[in-house]
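During the second year of the project, the team shifted from modelling isolated chains to modelling whole assemblies. The rationale, set out in the original proposal, was that interfaces cannot be judged from single-chain predictions alone. As a representative example for this report, we include one of the complexes processed in the last quarter. Its constituent sequences, exactly as entered into the pipeline, are reproduced here:
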Amino acid sequence: MDRREFLIKGGAAAAMGLGASRVASARTTIKWKMVTTWPKNFPGLGTGANNLARLITEMSGGRLKVKVYGAKELIPAFEVFDAVSRGTAEMGHSSAYYWKGKVPEAQFFSTMPFGMTAQEMNGWIYYGGGQELWDKVYAPFGVIGRPAGNTGVQMGGWFNKEINSLDDLKGLKMRIPGLGGEVLKRLGGTPVNLPGGELFTALTSGTIDATEWVGPYNDLAFGLYKAAKYYYYPGFHEPGTILEALINKKAFEALPKDLQAIVLAACKVVNMEMLAEYAARNPGALEQLVKEHHVEVRAYPDDVLRQLRKVSREVVEELAAQSKAAGEIYRSYSKFLEASRKYTRISDLPYLQAREA
Amino acid sequence: MDRREFLIKGGAAAAMGLGASRVASARTTIKWKMVTTWPKNFPGLGTGANNLARLITEMSGGRLKVKVYGAKELIPAFEVFDAVSRGTAEMGHSSAYYWKGKVPEAQFFSTMPFGMTAQEMNGWIYYGGGQELWDKVYAPFGVIGRPAGNTGVQMGGWFNKEINSLDDLKGLKMRIPGLGGEVLKRLGGTPVNLPGGELFTALTSGTIDATEWVGPYNDLAFGLYKAAKYYYYPGFHEPGTILEALINKKAFEALPKDLQAIVLAACKVVNMEMLAEYAARNPGALEQLVKEHHVEVRAYPDDVLRQLRKVSREVVEELAAQSKAAGEIYRSYSKFLEASRKYTRISDLPYLQAREA
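Output from the structure prediction step:
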């Protein structure tokens, strides 16, 4: 509907007592673009973005239509934040640690090595003050960030050699983003960041020696088992990574209240559903990797994990010291995590142990 | 708006090219009642029901208004299913194991002793075929059941004596609903079921010797620490209890598609948010119970847990043998759980262990 048609219909409706704004909100179609860091339709991540768009469209009865673009369709994978900030797209779907060069504090809203699980991140974000801190960090960029997906505990990654000691990490060129990469660097490795779609080629060609991505469901989809033999756990560096919906603040504020409520609720639905999808798909994918593709699943040795944990703590504390905002977020995050660990010791952890004993 | 007014306005709107149904859906206010098993505004459970109602009202721009009733306000706590089935209320908020006398199979959609965690239940329900089985079980009653909350791993319960061996369970009169109660019975105890609001009085007066309820956040709210000294873990009997939204099928089908999408999405939002609220509130409540109220937190002994697990398996298998439907659900549930356990052994469990090591 163009503006003239809208005014005519709105005027007629007002004359018969319906109220122009009500009719307008029932009739006007708003069109939004959503740019993403993922290959179009990539399982879990890309389909999560699709679900987010579909839900908004369905719940709004088509009043707000969101069209999804895969990485490179409109912009490169790692320019999602900038595109939403400048309004090239009204929405984005990505993860906050990709913006560490521009907003180091954003990493806290993605995942921390040896940090919170998905359940804990949701507790902190929605009921522990996390969202308010996130809003403050993104406000200067005119962007709103909201959880819209979680991978759960990730896998450690793919290696072409066994990791028997810390020495095996030295000189290792590994794709590992965010703070996990910084941990590897301190232990003598060389972290690199690449979009998911480039991992297979980089690993096959020897550009990198090792890579982490997400977990069995996603790693199977990229065929990483063809490029590396050993699959390590646990993913200490990403214990519950939040995928984020980015929303241009001006575009959001221009929406009527009911559409605002719909957009925010859709993010929450996808936040829950994506984790559920990983919970449902990872076990079968793991079985396929082991039985059909003969992948060797290995645990990081205990002393390697202990050292990774020690260095992780140092790296997170140094991030906290980088700015006043980072310090404030770190204190909130750590306080929540320490209390939660005490409770986890009498709930999730002993339950999972008793189930396996 | 009455029917006559609606027809007049709709007719006028159609004449001007808006389409009667669009105007109707923008103007008509539908009013629904939601009956619940919880005391009005009870933390987590009752407030979850409130959030569900509020979300539907907000996202629909007030076109669908849902009013929440606490236990006993319209009907007794355990008549929620019947009330929604006969249309006394369009919605309910409760948990499926309360209907075991009428629909034994419903228990699978609540929680199983030594069964799935919250994350696994969501995987099974949304992506593992669980919802389709749930729909089939409730169809004869004209009711739709959807997850709308989860407590996470619960606590074992409140006791006035230490549980050092299986002998200590003999003769124990304990409030414990669902299959957990059946497990206690096989081990010589006497399970009873009471609505949450009656637990404190029953425990104080000696009507029961022990009780489980949910976890620190909810148990603190009921003051159970004043009536018992020992607080046991883990809650083997309820490792991830789903709270359910019940929806009268005819009322649901009478809604326009966008409102249907809104109702279903609101259930998913609350399903996620309630678990997040427990994750955020339980740790602080635990600290308060221990530091201010001197509660003694105790682990069930390993041999007691082993026996509880063995009997749990028997009880669940007997439920599975009760009907063709129960057998079908059990096979789906068990297959999902067994695959998930294998994956959990290389993901959540070793991660939580490494974080504490």
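The first strand of chain B starts at residue 30 and ends at 36. Chain B is about 50% helix and 15% strand.
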